[in-house]
């Protein structure tokens, strides 16, 4: 199995497909079946490729330790339930969320094209990645996609005194004419957890006003946040209300766990939140009137006229194009960590 | 017509129904038909009753001047189009958004119960009120409701140098067991426009970091905002991304105007934004598993345990109960303004 990506080992840049192969091999080595491993590896490689490093190969250790300790089932076979003309549910069966979403993709797209809307309600799922890889492909198919996923207890609700919510991101994607989709993906916590972990590893401080320590006092020390501290919501009570909405849709509605409900204390190494995910699709073909694609271009043109230099996702697409030309940079230490995961 | 609410003129408190009658009479006096006037009057009285004063009787002058100058059609008959099993469109025909939503209510609720979801896409509509009155009744019917409405060019996109977006609120409501729905309604601008107008009238300063003057410099002077200045989005780039989402759903998808597209310069007195509105309904009966209502109560209980004293909408419900017992307080000056609108 190691032979398959020997070619990728020369230098510090690796092409996308060999990286997916390497990550797939690591996940298979740690108990995932080839189908599941391939989906997670591709997702992870996409994040690395697009410069979304907090959800790229940095996460592989967490995937591996979660598999090793039996917290997440890398061989789970998700089950889809066709609940109503515009609504399907998926029980991920304690597996990853992405294969559950993949299972529902075709059914949901057909529902959206027929009824105008579709919901995919995923429960019993583990999601450790960014959310934009889940919505962007639907926009590539001409649909509007909105998704929320809850995570693990690490964020204090506005007005509260202890953590309850997860980082609880919201992602949204719309198709564009002849361009990559317009996509945003934002944590409703003031910063994402991945940034705290990366700052801790790099020995850097956090910005002010985003986190508290174990005593509830404001802190900029990432280690203080990771050791019993917590994040705050972005934008005060407004971000907190959105985070609550994420809990209600991703868990309350799907049948998954709220971010504070699951107990991974008995699984040393567990890092994948065991919660739920909600995806909404809208087919703009039913909108009538002027084509939606024209309207998106009008708004973007006028945003640029109002001085907006960079759209959400612009940086990811720029990184993507560079990676397609030059390969994906993997540092020597990162590469050594991946090799260790492949052996160990 | 004035006789009908003579009883309400004693003292400075008025019951809900007489207030609705008074406001209806004012709107009819200025050209709305009785059906439209009744819906807007009731909406406006609900805001006043619940202590949402920036959208209460304070707005009557704006409704009246917009009718008087022919900017909004108070006799418009909205037209509903049944576009797909989960999707309906309403052309408000240059009338108010609330009668258009009322027209679609029954159809949309039936769609949601059957397909699991429903969209109401309203275009050619004028919305000058809060958004919670639009979503709360759906939650009262056991549905989850989400709505966005765009407004008028007054908010600078993050990274931009001039206003483009509206205040662009997002509202969300879920049913509760034996309690009033859990509802939030938030501007994606750092503060709502109504608060700027109220601060200007009261001679008060705005908080820092929410607005800029006509030169793009930070200001706390509400008059500087109203005279060529602009609002900022809440939470920086995140609030801005949400505001962009509101434009894309409420206008781009519905066929309404973006906040910066309509020109009311030829209509002196025009105050009602001529845009669109998007409403999404989800029927949690299709969720399967544990009843959604139980899950909502669990989350609320645990939020209280995490120290959250006040839920979104708690203050509105408290004001509502007080108004039901004691009537709605109307100051002498406010009453004089209403009486002048009724006469003039």
TrEMBL record, chains A, B:
Q: Which reaction does it catalyse?
A: L-proline + NADP(+) = 1-pyrroline-2-carboxylate + NADPH + H(+); L-pipecolate + NADP(+) = Delta(1)-piperideine-2-carboxylate + NADPH + H(+)
- In the UniProt record, the signal sequence range is none
Q: In its UniProt record, which GO terms are filed under biological process?
A: proline metabolic process
The family database entries (Pfam families) matched by this protein are listed as: Ldh_2
Its EC top class is: oxidoreductase
Family annotation (InterPro entries): Mal/L-sulf/L-lact_DH-like_ah, Mal/L-sulf/L-lact_DH-like_NADP, Mal/L-sulfo/L-lacto_DH-like_sf, Malate/L-lactate_DH-like
Question: What GO molecular-function term can you cite, just one?
Answer: delta1-piperideine-2-carboxylate reductase activity
Superkingdom in the source lineage: Bacteria
- Listed EC numbers: 1.5.1.21
Query: Which SUPFAM superfamilies does the UniProt record give?
Result: L-sulfolactate dehydrogenase-like
Q: Does the keyword Oxidoreductase apply?
A: yes
Q: Which UniProt keywords apply?
A: Oxidoreductase
UniProt lists the family membership as follows: Belongs to the LDH2/MDH2 oxidoreductase family.
Protein name per UniProt: Delta(1)-pyrroline-2-carboxylate/Delta(1)-piperideine-2-carboxylate reductase
* Species: Roseitalea porphyridii
């Amino acid at each position: 199995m190691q032979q398959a990506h020997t070619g990728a080992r020369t230098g510090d840049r690796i092409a996308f497909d060999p990286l997916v192969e390497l990550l797939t091999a690591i996940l298979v080595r740690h108990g995932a079946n080839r189908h599941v491993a391939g989906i997670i590896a591709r997702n992870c490689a996409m994040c690395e490729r697009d410069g979304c490093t907090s959800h790229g190969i940095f996460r592989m250790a967490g995937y591996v330790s979660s598999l090793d300790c039996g917290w997440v089932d890398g061989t789970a076979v998700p089950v889809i339930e066709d609940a109503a003309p515009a609504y399907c549910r998926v029980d991920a069966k304690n597996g990853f969320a992405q294969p559950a979403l993949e299972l529902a993709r075709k059914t949901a797209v057909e529902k959206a094209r027929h009824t105008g809307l579709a919901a995919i309600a995923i429960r019993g799922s583990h999601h450790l990645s960014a959310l934009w890889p889940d919505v962007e492909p639907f926009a590539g198919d001409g649909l509007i996609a909105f998704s929320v996923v809850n995570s693990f207890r690490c964020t204090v609700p506005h007005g509260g005194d202890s953590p309850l919510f997860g980082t609880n991101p919201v992602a949204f994607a719309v198709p564009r004419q002849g361009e990559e989709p317009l996509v945003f993906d934002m944590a409703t916590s003031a910063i994402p957890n991945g940034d705290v972990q990366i700052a801790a590893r790099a020995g850097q401080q956090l910005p002010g006003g985003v986190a508290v320590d174990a005593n509830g006092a404001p802190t900029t020390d990432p280690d203080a946040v990771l050791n019993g501290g917590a994040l705050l919501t972005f934008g005060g009570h407004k971000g907190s209300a959105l985070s609550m909405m994420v809990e209600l849709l991703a868990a309350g509605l799907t049948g998954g766990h709220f971010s504070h409900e699951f107990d991974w204390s008995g699984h040393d190494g567990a890092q994948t939140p065991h919660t739920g995910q909600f995806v909404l699709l809208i087919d703009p073909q039913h909108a009538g009137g002027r084509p939606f694609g024209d309207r998106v271009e009008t708004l973007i043109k006028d945003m640029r006229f109002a001085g907006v230099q960079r759209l959400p996702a612009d940086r990811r697409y720029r990184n993507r194009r560079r990676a397609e030309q030059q390969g994906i940079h993997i540092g020597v230490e990162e590469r050594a960590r991946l090799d260790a995961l492949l052996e160990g």
